[in-house]
Every structure is written in structure tokens, then in C-alpha cells.
């Protein structure tokens, strides 16, 4: 069970069909602002679940409650049967089994790609340098960056940085992977590489909980889609049904906004302009 | 009417002409001052007092092997103690335990508010008075190191704290989400970045400490423990000549000017965002 037994980071060793993530009555308030108002859903081992919803609906907060970057106000979260929300749980041991990929990559800028992927293996899993670096190379290869092992994050494009971040999480041999809008900070032409890596990962059987605005990815890769609005799950079900035949008015109007080609193009233009001006080297 | 006067302006000079005249006047004053000093100064006496080669020759090699060496040792020990203590105080300042934060705040305010000389006197005179027979360990090196370090820690704590706070929040979150403990994330991820950010101000602190180590003068040190300032002062007295003080000053500049330049270069490089 321990991540150390699976040095290659092979995904999804929990019994297929067992519950990988269970979220029961989850609530989270920041002061008086109740962001999550009772969330219930499960992710089975090997399943890919996409969470969609408007900005501010609490998607990031939900993800961050799963690995306790935010402490829930109420409710229960279990990951592979371990109750994360139990006050006595060894949170570092739990987080080791949950990979997380952030919108802003959060690579360690003082380390090379190899160092980024190796450091937690060495400090947390106590692997020796040679082994950690061997596994780091394997995982960088897996995300298509075998030739970038010695590059520093500042020398990589956004898409390459995000793939290093994925390799960094995979090298710990996680049982589930959380993605928080992994492509939202990327230039449009770099999105495909990252989604490609995630698709391969999904095909290999990794359990994934993905917050995303990429509807085509959700439709093609996700087993289920969860639509959140105002801190509650409005609608969930098979990807094809939620996206192509939503049952609720709120889901319909959200999808209309996201899928409307004209609106989408305007949004894209803004995003990539913002990206270029803040990081001309990418 | 107004247009006409502005165009004619027979009384005034053009702006360019006025600037030229002003420049010439300034050069003129400077030249007169230089000539006056050259003519009026008693060069032989000055040379005898300030740049006396015989006196200077007698300073070597001790001013380097004893004076400069001890200055470097006191500075290094003070910097080391200051850095470790400063790191501890900075982490306390950022702690989620309120009493730690209070202690750190009080420490920083107190030691930034006291004259360094008073701290030196406290360490050398106050401690033996308060605890008869006891002394700060390590002799002159220990006492100077503690006095300098305790004071420098207050400044360094603030510097280190600002460095830690300058590291984006996402770094700690990324490290923690990989299963690192808070301490482990600090050690491997946050502090290496924080220290990179604060190398320029820390280099500056080193310059200040180098100069402040001269306060050892008041500790009553043995001949072997003298650093540059005390060495220069003693020899000036013995030889009845100012040259040793000048030479000691030059020795300080040999350390401090390269450090200052280095610190400025590092700062410049960081501003340009290179690695
Ligand atoms: N640390 C925090 N402190 C206070 N309020 C917060 C904090 N984090 C999030 N919030 C608030 O919680 C609400 C939901 O935020 P969250 O980031 O979960 O939304 P989101 O669905 O991920 O939105 P987006 O699509 O823009 O990323 C927002 O109103 C936000 O202001
Ligand atoms: Mg979000």
C-alpha cells in the first residue's frame, strides 16, 4: 500500500470499482462566506471525474479540501478508505498518496526539472539520490520531457512546466491525482500537450479528479462530470449526458456560455494576451 | 505685446548660455580650491603624519596577521551567530503560536533600539557582574561574536522574514501536497529561495558587522586579540603618528568596498531577473 512499493508510480492499484475518493456532507466557510454548502460525491478507483462550473463556485476549494490544503468546516473526506478529515490522521502520509497539479504549476524555481521531480522522493520517501533521479527520469520521459531534465523552470514553456509538475506528482506513486485547471494558464497552442499527457494517464487507469474548462477533454476522457454552482453540486452524471443533454437550467446556461464559439474566442484572446504580457519568454 | 518681449529679451541670456556660465563658475571654484589647498597645505608635515612610510613599514606584518585577521574572525563569528539567531527569530515571528510571535517582535524592537556599544558593555562588563565568576564563553572572540550576533540577529530576522514572505504561497502548498512536513518544506523549498532573495541585504549586513567589530576596542583585549581599529589606535599612540590609523582605514576599505560592490551587483542582477 505504501507509495514506496511502487517506484514507477504505476497508477490505480486500489481494487477497481472501489471508492478512491468519498466526499460526504462537505462544507467549507471562509469567515462568513460559505463556499461549499454540503457536497456529496464519490470517485471510484480508476475513474476520471471532471468538475466544471462558473468562477467562484468553489471548485478549487473542493479540490483543496481533498488533500487538506484547506481544512473543511464540516463533513467527511475519505481517500482510499483513509479518513482525511480525521483530526488524528497523519496528513503528510495521506498527501503522499494524493498527487496535486496546480493551475500555476508551482514548480520549484531553484531546482532543475530533474530536481523538481526528485526532491520529494528523497525527502519524503527517503529514496537515495540515484534511485530518485532514475524514477524522476522515467516520469519526465513519460510526460515527453526526457530532453529537458537539466532545464530550470524559467527555461521551460508553460506547457513544459505543467508537464514537469505532473511528473513530479506521479513520481510519488499517488493513488489519485487532483488537477486544478491545469491548462488555464497556458497559451492555447500549449494546451494540447498537457491534455495529451492527462489523457494517457487516464487510459493507464489513474484515478483522476479534474477541475477544467476544457469541455472537449471532459466529454472525451471523463467517465463522469460534476457541475457545481454556488457551493453545491447541481448536476452529475456521465460526461455525454451532462455536457450534451444537461437536465438543469443552471447547467444549460453555464454550458451555453462556455461552449458559445464567439464568447469562447473572446475569452481565449484575453487569456493568452494576459499570459504573453506577464511571461514574454514562454 | 507679451510675444514681443519674449522674443527680444535684450537683458537676459539664453538658457543654454546661462547653463554654460554656471558650469564655468563651478569649475572655477573647484580649481581655485584645489590650488589653494596645494599652496597653503604644509605637505611635508602632512606626509610625515598621515603617510609616513617608516611608520607604515613598522605596522607590517602584524596589522594583517593580527589586526585584519581578527577583524575577519570577529565579523565571521558575529555574522554566523546573527544568521542562526536571526533565522530562529524570523521563524518565531512567522509562527502560528502567538507567544513566539510576541517574543520575536519584542526581541527585534529591543535590539534594534539599543546602541551596539551598550550591548558590548553589557556582554563584557554586565555579565561578569551579574554572574560572578561567569563570563560569555570563547574569550574575546566569543564575547564579540555574541554582542555583534545578538544585535545583528534583530536586523537579519526582519530581512529573513521578508525573504520568506517573498516566496510565493504556492511553493509551500506544492511542497506540502507532495507530503513534505512544514519543516521539511521550509528547509528544502522555502529557505533556499528566501536566502537567494536576501543575499544582497545580507552582504550589506556583513559590511556593517565588519565595521562594528571595531567596538571590541572597549572590551579590553590582549595584544593578540586586537583587531584593525584597536591596532591602529595603539600603534598611533606608540609611534606618535597618524599613519597607522590611515592604514587601518585602508584595510577596512579593502574588505568593505568589494563587499559593497558585490552586494550592489547581486541586487542589480536580481532586479534584471537573471538566474
Ligand atoms: N483562502 C481564502 N480565503 C477567503 N476566501 C476564499 C479563499 N479561497 C477561496 N475563497 C473564496 O471562495 C470562493 C470560491 O473560490 P474557489 O477558488 O474555490 O472558486 P473556483 O470555483 O475555483 O473559481 P475559479 O474558476 O475562478 O478558479 C470565492 O468566492 C473565493 O473568494
Ligand atoms: Mg479555481
UniProtKB/TrEMBL annotation, chain A:
The keyword Nucleotide-binding applies. GO terms for molecular function: ATP binding. It is a peripheral membrane protein. The keyword rRNA-binding does not apply. InterPro entries: AAA+_ATPase, ABC_ATPase_HisP-typ, ABC_transporter-like_ATP-bd, ABC_transporter-like_CS, MetN_ABC_transporter-like, P-loop_NTPase. SUPFAM superfamilies: P-loop containing nucleoside triphosphate hydrolases. It is found in: Cell membrane. Keywords: Amino-acid transport, ATP-binding, Cell membrane, Membrane, Nucleotide-binding, Transport. Residues 21-255 form the ABC transporter domain. Belongs to the ABC transporter superfamily. This is Amino acid ABC transporter ATP-binding protein. It comes from Actinomadura fibrosa.
Amino acid at each position: 500500500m505504501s507509495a514506496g512499493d511502487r517506484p514507477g508510480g504505476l497508477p490505480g492499484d486500489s481494487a477497481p470499482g472501489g471508492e478512491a475518493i468519498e466526499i460526504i456532507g462537505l462544507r467549507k466557510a471562509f469567515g462568513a462566506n460559505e463556499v461549499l454548502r454540503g457536497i456529496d460525491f464519490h470517485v471510484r478507483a480508476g475513474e476520471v471525474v471532471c468538475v466544471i462550473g462558473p468562477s467562484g463556485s468553489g471548485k478549487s476549494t473542493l479540490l483543496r479540501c481533498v488533500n487538506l490544503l484547506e481544512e473543511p468546516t464540516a463533513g467527511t473526506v475519505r481517500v482510499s478508505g483513509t479518513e482525511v478529515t480525521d483530526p488524528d490522521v497523519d496528513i503528510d502520509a495521506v498527501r503522499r498518496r494524493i498527487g496535486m497539479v496546480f493551475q500555476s504549476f508551482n514548480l520549484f524555481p531553484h531546482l532543475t526539472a530533474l530536481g523538481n521531480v526528485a526532491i520529494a522522493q528523497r525527502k519524503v520517501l527517503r529514496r537515495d539520490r540515484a534511485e530518485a533521479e532514475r524514477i524522476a527520469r522515467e516520469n519526465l520521459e513519460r510526460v515527453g520531457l526526457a530532453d529537458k531534465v537539466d532545464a530550470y523552470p524559467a527555461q521551460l514553456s508553460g506547457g513544459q512546466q505543467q508537464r514537469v509538475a505532473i511528473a513530479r506528482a506521479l513520481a510519488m506513486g499517488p493513488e489519485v491525482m487532483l488537477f486544478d485547471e491545469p491548462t488555464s494558464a497556458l497559451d492555447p497552442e500549449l494546451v494540447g500537450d498537457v491534455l495529451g499527457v492527462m489523457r494517457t494517464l487516464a487510459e493507464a487507469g489513474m484515478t483522476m479528479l479534474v477541475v477544467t474548462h476544457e469541455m472537449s477533454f471532459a466529454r472525451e476522457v471523463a467517465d463522469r462530470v460534476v457541475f457545481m454552482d454556488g457551493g453545491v453540486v447541481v448536476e452529475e452524471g456521465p460526461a455525454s449526458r451532462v455536457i450534451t443533454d444537461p437536465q438543469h437550467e443552471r447547467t444549460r446556461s453555464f454550458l451555453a456560455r462556455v461552449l458559445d464559439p464567439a464568447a469562447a474566442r473572446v475569452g481565449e484572446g484575453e487569456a493568452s494576451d494576459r499570459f504573453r504580457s506577464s511571461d514574454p519568454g514562454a | 505685446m507679451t510675444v514681443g518681449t519674449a522674443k527680444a529679451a535684450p537683458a537676459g541670456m539664453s538658457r543654454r548660455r546661462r547653463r554654460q556660465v554656471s558650469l564655468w563658475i563651478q569649475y572655477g571654484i573647484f580649481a581655485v580650491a584645489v590650488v589653494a589647498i596645494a599652496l597653503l597645505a604644509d605637505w611635508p608635515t602632512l606626509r610625515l603624519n598621515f603617510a609616513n612610510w617608516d611608520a607604515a613599514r613598522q605596522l607590517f606584518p602584524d596589522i594583517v596577521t593580527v589586526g585584519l585577521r581578527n577583524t575577519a574572525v570577529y565579523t565571521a563569528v558575529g555574522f554566523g551567530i546573527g544568521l542562526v539567531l536571526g533565522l530562529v527569530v524570523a521563524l518565531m515571528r512567522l509562527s502560528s503560536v502567538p507567544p513566539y510571535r510576541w517574543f520575536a517582535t519584542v526581541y527585534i524592537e529591543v535590539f534594534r533600539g539599543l546602541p551596539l556599544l551598550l550591548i558590548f558593555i553589557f556582554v563584557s562588563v554586565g555579565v561578569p557582574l551579574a554572574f560572578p565568576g561567569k563570563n560569555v564563553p570563547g574569550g574575546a572572540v566569543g564575547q564579540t561574536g555574541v554582542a555583534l550576533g545578538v544585535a545583528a540577529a534583530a536586523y537579519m530576522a526582519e530581512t529573513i522574514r521578508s525573504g520568506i514572505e517573498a516566496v510565493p504561497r504556492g511553493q509551500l502548498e506544492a511542497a506540502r501536497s507532495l507530503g513534505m512536513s512544514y519543516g521539511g518544506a521550509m528547509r528544502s523549498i522555502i529557505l533556499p529561495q528566501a536566502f537567494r532573495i536576501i543575499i544582497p541585504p545580507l552582504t550589506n549586513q556583513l559590511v556593517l558587522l565588519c565595521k562594528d567589530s571595531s567596538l571590541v576596542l572597549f572590551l579590553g583585549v590582549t595584544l593578540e586579540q586586537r583587531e584593525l581599529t584597536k591596532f591602529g589606535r595603539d600603534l598611533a599612540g606608540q609611534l606618535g603618528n597618524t599613519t597607522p590609523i590611515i592604514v587601518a582605514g585602508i584595510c577596512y576599505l579593502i574588505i568593505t568596498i568589494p563587499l559593497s560592490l558585490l552586494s550592489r551587483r547581486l541586487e542589480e542582477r536580481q532586479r534584471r531577473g537573471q538566474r
